[in-house]
Amino acid sequence: MALGDWVVRSLFSLVKLFPWKLPLSGWLQKRAIRQPPDATAKILFQRRRAEIQAEFLQDRLNFLSVPVLILCGDRDRPQTLESSRTYANLCPRSQLNTIPDADESVAETSPDLVVQEIRQFLQL
What we know:
Layout: H1 3-17, H2 23-34, H3 38-45, H4 49-54, E1 68-73, H5 78-90, E2 94-99, H6 106-109, H7 111-122
Parallel strand pairs: 1-2
Helix pairs in contact: 1-2
């Protein structure tokens, strides 16, 4: 734990002991709420570089040598659609197909269309 965090937590505990309201107590309370739990801080800030790099999928997509089908619904979230386009551009042998009137749960809501898209892709 950093010294600053220790000081804030100590002051917050001390201020709670007094029955009167100090102007500092509101600030300390807000500061204490914003503090992430220790486990969260450890997960976020104490990871090894290799662990972080392993999550960057886009850095490895250009090494794929097999055909890749990327399916998404045209009503997917904008971030999902953009990621799908990015992945399709990074994979050398990719095909991006958008299923009309489908969202991110396209496999559950339109399984027949998904199977049809996969069959067409595999015939290439």
